[in-house]
Amino acid sequence: MKRRTARLTLFALAVAGQAMPLAAQGKAVDRTRLDQLFAQFDSLSPEADPAAYRSTAAASLVEAQRLFPAGHPDVAIGRLNVAQGMAAAGEMDKAMAEVDALLPVLAAAKANHRYRASWRNALNTRAYILNFKGEHDAALAINEQLLTDYEADPARDQKDYATVLSNLAASYLEHGRLDDALKSNAQAIEVALKIDPVPADVAMWNANRVVYLYSAGRTEDAIATAQNALARLTPAMGADHPAMANLYANLGAILFRTNRPHDAMPMIRRAYELIEKTNGGPNQNSATMRVQFAQALMRAGQYEDAVAFLSTATPIIDAQLGAQSDRALNARDSMLIALINTGKGKEAQPIAEDLLKIRDARLPEGHRDRANARDNLAKAAFANGDWATAETAARESVVLRTKMLPADHPDLLLARTMLLRVQDRAGTRPTADLLYEARRLFEALTLNANLARGSAQAERQRPAYGWLAEIFTRRGATEDAFKAQQWAARSSIDDALAIAQSERAAAAEPAFAQIVAQRRQLLAARQGLEARLDANLGKPDPAFDLAGVTGELDANREAIAVLDSGLEEAQRAQLFFIPSSLAEVAAASPRGTATVMITDVGGSWLLTAASGKRVTQYLIGDQPVGTLIARLRGAINAGTAASFDRAGAAQLYVTLFPGRAGAMLRGSQRLAVIANGALGALPFGLLVPEVRGKDYLIDRLVVNRLVRAPRAGRSGVAARAVGETLIALGGVEGRKAGALMAMRSAGTARAIDALPELPDARRELTALAEAIGAGSSHLLVGEQATEAQLRATSIPQGAVLAFATHGLVSGELDGLDEPALLLTPDGRDDGLLKPSEIGGLNLPARLVILSACNTASAADEDRPQLSGLVQGFFLAGADRVMASHWPVRDDIARRLSVGTVKGMRAGADPARALHNAILTVRSGKDGEAGANHPALWAPFELFSR
């Protein structure tokens, strides 16, 4: 910043020493260089090359002053260029003074169309500065004046017209006129996209649109808008255009805030790489994005990597903004959390103590970061077992938030839960009192979550469920712990799925639809009230009427409660998550079944196991579980050439199922598992009950995955018989699909073309048709295996729906942000069948067979297996899905799928049928070579709703 100011000062000195302008000497003016400089400045972007932007502006002013007297319109244009450079650099007061001085000159010359464009540009710049300074009424008046002027001019410059529309959208938003803002913004984008070449600003306008939607609480619309914008702008501007950085950054930020860190990371990385490429190296903007990338790494559990990123980014921010700047403090907040989670609490606690002192000294009473600093100190002290410091910090956080927030606000509830957690460990509160408070907090948290599922507020309070589950378990409140555990296991995708189900139900029931619509309106009003609270936390106002806002929130909640009271039981189930009780689990579980729920509750795993009337519940340390899972996945990745890590599999089994739990499994014939996190992607059948034995858990038990704790009477899927209909798709040829996908991107076409052939796919479909018996088989093979053909095919109740093709994971192809099944592209269909598309279909199959690689993978690692292709089929109406956790050999996939269908046709339930098929393939009793290595047979599991 200082260097640029110095450069402008030097230009000013040079101007002062110029001889009399040529025009004043009566000579003919050669304005060739001046016009070149003006055109060059117009072609530059301040984001792409800030230094060139300002130096070209200054050069244009020097040349204009050489040619013309001070009051000439061309000199005013040069001064305007310099003012725009100042504004782009944040020097708003200097820029405003320049604009106010030159505007009268351009206004007097605006009858000339050339100068009229510059007059408009000057007004545009003034409106931009006014908006930045918070003078939104004055900015809106200018933008409306400009729009009227442009629309009356048939010869208007389309780029400038689009800019006015975009600026008007920003002004409308500042005045709370969201619909008008979105309309003007959309007009600006459409005008700009018709200009050749497409101006770089259109990327920023799309980024603004994403922010508008997110700020209004329309999170999914914001994400979809960003993704669509990237798809539209990449061909027009190029994926690596510097102006795209803002769009990538905004999409990454929203994905991170909606708890999708793995989706967020590629977007954030692309943003900071573009900034650093343009800048010639890191700066404070790219370093700030690196901090956000580190936060995404932390959310994904990659704390060591986060520490490395933060160690690089923080010094850059310190050097450019100062060690006590907001961005530098935010980086240190992230560092201390990363240190805590890498077992370095002793390093984290001094950082937390320093941050608390800095924020207390700098921030006013009531600012959220004063409470946040105490939260972080409490977490660091908790990790060190410094209970006295942890309790003091947590209590102070609660006191500060109580002064600024309603009693049921998620941030206050989270702080109160953290205090309770500390008191539980410190032993400073009696058990009866502790449990009473924990139950009150749990009720308040779940009321909030069921009020507005999937909201940012509901996401913020999510860690509290795990803390309460831990407290209940430690204090022997098994039933309470189990209910809290079920809440802790829920992810953002579970909320998205539930919302989609309620929308489908509403579409079929007009009365219910009316309630849902009224509820949505009340929730929108509630978001506005909560936004007022959040704004006051960021900039506390002593005159803020907390009691008034709290009263409005209470009235809003009561109005929603009145609506909810009129719902029928089935409708309530569509809108609210109601956890199962242990008695319901026992009643819903077949005799001889052990039902086990294992949940990551933050720092530890909670296991609840039930079989009949027997229940056991306990906490397991996080480190041994994570280490052992990594060992086993590493052994699997090594393939069949390496020996399987039986010792690791046996150690994990004993870690998960010690004592009573192990005895429960030994007395059972079946195991039903509900697991999240890293355990959600590990087949339990490959665990080893006894390291000195030769068998696996699958040799002793039929293993079945559940998406949530069962409840008697919830679903009638168990009573369904498999039908005599097979619908099967596969035999897609990668080379043909790749050629057809060239329209999507060259990278995608190459990736598809490089996929290995699946020579057994057609054979598998034929064998499945034979296994289904004399019933109806509808095979869609090769060019017939399209999305359109699937949509056009009626899937009868109880049918088998099978896919023998490649399964692709998120990020495997350009722009692929969900997993997908590869089909043949046709017309508008890109050949990638994704969960978001599957969920909109009607597929009431008893069994879906995904005979492909990675089909139990998540839409990304943020969403456990239930959120990927499996969950898409559940939403479409399927009862059970057979899917894989890692790449599988196509001949093994064929043998397992055919064996499962044969078993079902013989009367076995799907889980037993898959179990028997696995044993047969391992032993080679199906007439083919035995395949006993877990890398071959273990990836397939059966998932049930």
TrEMBL record:
Signal peptide residue numbers: 1-24
CHAT domain: residues covered: 649-942
Alphabetized InterPro entries for the sequence: CHAT_dom, TPR-like_helical_dom_sf, TPR_rpt
Keywords of this entry: Repeat, Signal, TPR repeat
PANTHER family per the UniProt record, alphabetical: NEPHROCYSTIN-3 (PTHR45641:SF19), TETRATRICOPEPTIDE REPEAT PROTEIN (AFU_ORTHOLOGUE AFUA_6G03870) (PTHR45641)
Protein name per Swiss-Prot or TrEMBL: CHAT domain-containing protein
Source taxonomy: Bacteria, Pseudomonadati, Pseudomonadota, Alphaproteobacteria, Sphingomonadales
